[in-house]
């Protein structure tokens, strides 16, 4: 991996974390980024209108840790994730953008893996290991620092059922490579674990702000592909644990409207949205 990193020498990196009123989960997520083997990155928190508890948490991390944090916030107006992500993309100082969520705890090599596999002309498509609520509540800062919470034995002992998805957490490098090659999962842009160069995100004008919850990240990936990028699968290399939570913002009408936008982007090969970072005047 060290050899691969040389090709990106001098590349600056911004991690963009979307968040909304889940300060306990955000705290665990930020602990994961405190524990990274590669510490050369800034954190941009794309906050879709959280309250004071989240702001106070972020300020504590800014003043008591070495994390370089920007807090990009707007007032709560319902599910406006695409809008706040666009603001965060614009504010990000890095050449390279890694996007994840404030409820996804990263393995300690998460940043290093994204940097190592970054390539001009590509975006990276990662995944997550989704935890049940019982396991999510069992995770602690100490467990993140020690890496215990990524242990198969610990996960099984704390409520995770035995299944093939546990392969996502393998530390065997050869098995990781094999799984990434053989997985039938499409190399889509997944908002919880994906990355690209900032210039490519700006080229397609970021996320489509007409979209609410449901496939808005996939549509962004379609436009990246239409603009000429290819996708690399890093599903088994870049590992994060998704903490469970309620999803009161899921609405059938929004899902249907989003699907129409996605279908249009695919059918017409759209590379750019006029409803993104830069607005038509």
What does this structure look like?
α2 packs parallel to α3. By secondary structure, the chain is an alpha/beta fold. The chain has a single domain, classed as Spore Coat Polysaccharide Biosynthesis Protein SpsA, Chain A (Alpha-Beta Complex), CATH 3.90.550. β1, α2 and β2 form a beta-alpha-beta unit.
Number of distinct beta strands: 10
**What is the number of domains?**
1
DSSP strand (E) fraction? Answer: 15-25%
Major sheet strand order? 3-2-1-4-8-6-9
Order of helices and strands: HEHEHEHEEHEEHHHHEHHEEH
> Architecture in CATH?
Alpha-Beta Complex
Distance N to C terminus: 46 Å
Largest sheet: 7 strands, mixed
Number of helix segments? 12
Name of the CATH first level: Alpha Beta
Low-confidence stretches: none
> What structural class results from the helix and strand content?
alpha/beta
* Average pLDDT number: 90
Quaternary arrangement of the chains shown? single chain
Shape: globular
The CATH homologous superfamily is called Spore Coat Polysaccharide Biosynthesis Protein SpsA, Chain A
CATH topology: Spore Coat Polysaccharide Biosynthesis Protein SpsA, Chain A
Rg measurement, Å: 18 Å
What percent of residues adopt helix (DSSP H or I)? 25-40%
Features:
281 residues; 10 strands; 40% helix; 12 helices; alpha/beta; 7-stranded mixed β-sheet; single chain; Spore Coat Polysaccharide Biosynthesis Protein SpsA, Chain A; 3-stranded mixed β-sheet
Topology (SSEs and partners):
Blueprint: H1 2-6, E1 13-19, H2 23-34, E2 42-47, H3 52-64, E3 68-73, H4 81-91, E4 96-101, E5 104-106, H5 110-117, E6 122-125, E7 129-130, H6 133-138, H7 141-146, H8 152-157, H9 173-182, E8 193-197, H10 198-203, H11 216-226, E9 230-233, E10 240-242, H12 252-268
Parallel strand pairs: 1-2, 1-4, 2-3, 6-9, 7-10
Antiparallel strand pairs: 4-8, 5-10, 6-8
Helix pairs in contact: 2-3, 11-12
């Amino acid at each position: 991996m060290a050899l691969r990193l040389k090709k990106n020498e001098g590349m600056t990196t911004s991690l963009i974390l979307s968040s909304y009123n889940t300060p306990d989960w955000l705290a665990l997520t930020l602990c994961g980024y405190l524990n990274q083997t590669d510490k050369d990155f800034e954190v941009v928190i794309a906050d879709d209108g959280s309250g004071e508890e989240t702001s106070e948490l972020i300020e504590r991390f800014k003043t008591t840790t070495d994390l370089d944090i920007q807090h990009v916030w707007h007032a709560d107006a319902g599910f406006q994730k695409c809008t706040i992500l666009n603001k965060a993309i614009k504010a990000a100082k890095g050449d390279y953008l890694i996007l994840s969520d404030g409820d996804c705890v990263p393995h300690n090599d998460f940043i290093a893996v994204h940097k190592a596999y970054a390539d001009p002309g590509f975006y990276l498509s990662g995944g997550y290991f989704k935890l049940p609520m019982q396991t999510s509540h069992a995770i602690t800062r100490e467990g993140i620092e020690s890496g215990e919470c990524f242990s198969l034995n610990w996960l099984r002992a704390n409520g995770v059922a035995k299944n093939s998805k546990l392969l996502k957490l393998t530390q065997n490098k050869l098995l990781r490579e094999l799984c990434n090659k053989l997985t039938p999962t499409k190399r889509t842009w997944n908002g919880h674990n994906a990355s690209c160069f900032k210039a490519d995100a700006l080229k397609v004008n970021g996320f489509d702000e007409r979209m609410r919850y449901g496939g808005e990240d996939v549509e962004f990936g379609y436009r990246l592909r239409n603009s000429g990028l290819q996708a690399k699968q890093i599903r088994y290399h870049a590992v994060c644990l998704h903490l469970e939570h309620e999803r009161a913002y899921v609405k059938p009408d929004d899902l249907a409207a989003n699907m129409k936008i996605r279908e249009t982007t695919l059918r017409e090969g759209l590379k750019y949205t006029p409803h993104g970072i830069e607005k038509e005047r």
